[in-house]
Amino acid sequence: MELLIGRTREKKILEDTLNSSTSELIAVYGRRRVGKTYLIIAFYEKYIRFEFTGTHGANMQEQLEAFSMSLKKSINSPVDVAVL
Question: What is the pTM of this model?
Fold first, then answer.
């Protein structure tokens, strides 16, 4: 997370959500190409077990097939379990 410069408010929200004792949902939105995905991946890198990004211009069937393939790959790969 050392590479995240600035974004103090956003990092505080992500940290509070991570440390929450209840289930949380975060919606990240904004202009394209400003680092939204990078922020999430960099902040939560040691907690992410599965990630998927949709394919631009793909129909629902193609999106579901890509999601399914990504999920199968993540299930078949060894995973280190983090103790929180």
Answer: 0.61
